[in-house]
Description:
Oligomer: single chain
Radius of gyration: 17 Å
Order of helices and strands: HHHH
Largest sheet: none
Shape: extended
Number of strands: 0
Amino acid sequence: MLESLKEWKGALIVIGILLLLTPLFAWAADLVGYAEPLENAAEHLGAMEHETAIISGILPDYTIPGANPYASAIVAGIVGCVIVLVIGILVGKALAR
């Protein structure tokens, strides 16, 4: 197991740095008034009037309701990275067979 971690050391360092920077990205996005382009297009076309949510998602709008938005960004980043990493490992193992 320790050998496999050594192979991923560089990637894990980059992921860790990006996770630590997520509050900075959240702050900068808020500062410039960034909004998701797909949501902007839907609002422009009037599609948001017909919006119905089937499921709100694991962390709606990348936050934990009631928590500090910057801390929520860190948690959302960690959860997202873990989910993508686990899926990647599972797909890699399935393809290796």
